[in-house]
Each structure stands twice: as C-alpha cells, then as structure tokens.
Amino acid sequence: MKKLILFLLIPLSVFSQKTTMSFDSNALGESREITIGLPPSFEKNPNKKYPLLILLDGEYLFDPFYGALNYGAYWDDLPETIIVAISQNKKNERATDSGFKSENGLPSETGANFFEFIGSELIPFIEKKYRIAPFSIIAGHDVTAGFLNFFLYKENPIFRGYISMSPEFATDMETRIPEKLAAIKQSVYYYQSNGDGDIKKLQEAIKKLDTNIKLLKNPLVNYKFDDFKGASHYSLVLHSIPNALYQIFDSYKPISSAEYSEKIAVLQSGYVDYLVNRYDNLSKNLGINIPIRINDFIAIEAAILKNKAYPELDKLAELAKKNYPKSMLADYELGLMYEKMGDLKKALKSYQKASQLDEIGNLTKDMMMEKYDDMKSQTAKK
Description:
The protein has 382 residues and is an alpha/beta fold. Helices cover 48% and strands 17% of the residues. The protein folds into two domains: 2-252, Alpha/Beta hydrolase fold, catalytic domain (Rossmann fold, 3-Layer(aba) Sandwich); 257-381, Serine Threonine Protein Phosphatase 5, Tetratricopeptide repeat (Alpha Horseshoe).
C-alpha cells in the first residue's frame, strides 16, 4: 500500500517527455507559451546530442510532428529529435508574428521582433538547457511557412532544414529564396508542399518558387517539392510531415536492401570505406554522431564475402574495435578473415578470444565456441 501511495505522489511530468512553459521574451515584450518535446532516451544518454526542430504554429503542429518522429525513431529510420513548438493561437498572433513590409518584403517591426525572439532568445535558451546537435530545422504552415524563409536571408543561416507547408510568401520571395539558396555555402535541406485543393493564389506562387529552385546548380541544396492530389490547405500537413522528415534525415536510416544491392554489393572494392564515409557524412551533414549499427556491419561483411574480398575483413575488424571495443565483433571478423583465407590456426585463436568477450547482435559465446571447435577439428585432420 505504501508503494502505491508513493507512486501516486510522483509528479506525472517525471514520466512525460512533453513540457509546456511560459517564456519571457524581451524582444516581444511579453511571455510566449512554448512546448518542449524531449526524446525518450534523453535522460538515459547524458552524452548524446539531438537535432533541434523549431515549430511555428506549435499548438497544432506539435502532436503530428512528435508522433511522426517517435514512430520513425522506434524503427531507427529517423533520429530522436528535440522539438520546441511556439504557440501562436491568440487572436491574430500568427499574422502579426509573420508581418512584413510589402514595399521591400522584409519583416515589419512585429515580424522583426518575432524573428529576434527565435534567433537571439529562444534558441540560445534551448542550447544552454539541452544537449543540441549542430543541426536545426524550422517548420511552419501557411503564413508562418512563408515567414521561416526570412532565416535564409541571413548570410549564415541558423537553420539547415526548412519545412514549408503551403506557404504564403512575403514580397518577391519566389525569386529571393532561389538567390539565397544558390549562394549558400553549407548543406541545406528545403522542403515545400501544396495540394491541388489548396488556395489557388498560394499555389501559383509555390509552383513559381518550385520552378526557380529546380533551375539551381548548387549541389549543397537538397530540395523536395510535393504536390498532393486530393489534399486541401489543411490535410496536406499530415501528408507533408513524414515526407519532409524522411527527406531531411534520409542519410540517417540503416542500410536498406536496395542500398545494399544497388550501391554496395556492386562495388569492386572499398566496402569498409563506403561504410566509414556513410557515417562521416551523417556527422558532417546532420551533426549526428552514433556508433555504426550492427546490421550495417553485417551488410558490409556480406558484401565482402559475396565478392571474396576477404582482406577487407581486417579493416572491418579495426572499425568494429573502434565502435564496440568490449564486444566480440572485431575478433569474430578477424576469425572469419583467417578462416576464409585458409589460416585455420589464426582463425581458431581469434574465435577463442571472441568467446571471452561481450556478446553483440546475433553473435554469442556459444557461436564462437562452435566456430572454435570447428577450426580445431579441421586443424587436427590436417
């Protein structure tokens, strides 16, 4: 009974990853409600850093984004991400926040204040309070989707990812955005969408921007446009969110069967280099540093065996030792190399050493001892 009472007295927030708070802004001269969504692993991994997603129209965009990211992270297709959603549900708030001067297409006084609030107050606060990777995304819908493009106007934009759903543009954005993307000097991910049931006036400008961006030659720009059939101004949001996230985080997902068949198995050499470069690019482009997945080791091992490039198993073993120093993976790969190359005595020793280390993936101590016994029996026959 005492245990039950203690459980009931623990605040529910201990078990929740969603927190809503008031943020006092000097730039806005008022408090603004923000909702913070932390990944399930945040407390368990004190050294891990997470990408940041800033949501405009947070009162209705938080839940669909949070659900999509958690679902993708469950299957390890999307990285766990910290979400910060800004509520804009007061009367006319989203319009004034996104305000701009029609004559020059730049933020008006209230729009400039909101811009300052995000870049100079909110993000520094989040970066100080939480472990943020050097990769941030901003997303919005309608007028806020247009507003988020102002961050691209800066010489060194603070966001690397832009999710613009049915945007309502400021003056000349259809030409200014491509100009900024053409000159950008760091990799950037840009997504925009509309539906054939969307507001006609918005569709014209969106498609004009799409045409202009597709003329760009800048290899640093990763661009995707969705024109959803049968989607309205509002329903297109639920179509857009997973598409945008999977576009931006495409390089995060594990090696797929298609990638293995089309890009890896067809290589003549350099299988381990492919794996190293894949994770180096993940770190460089998305600011995400994670150990190489066990299944990705298995995929590279399979390609090496398929193409009988057995010496590369030595490089794979070095990589395994770096990523999983206490596991049996490195010695298993060495044992496999020696076995395939006919040096059964060295294979025997490697499998024996592997049997004394931590199990990993589908590699077990029993499996290593079976390999050891097999090498021993073959050696005895010789």
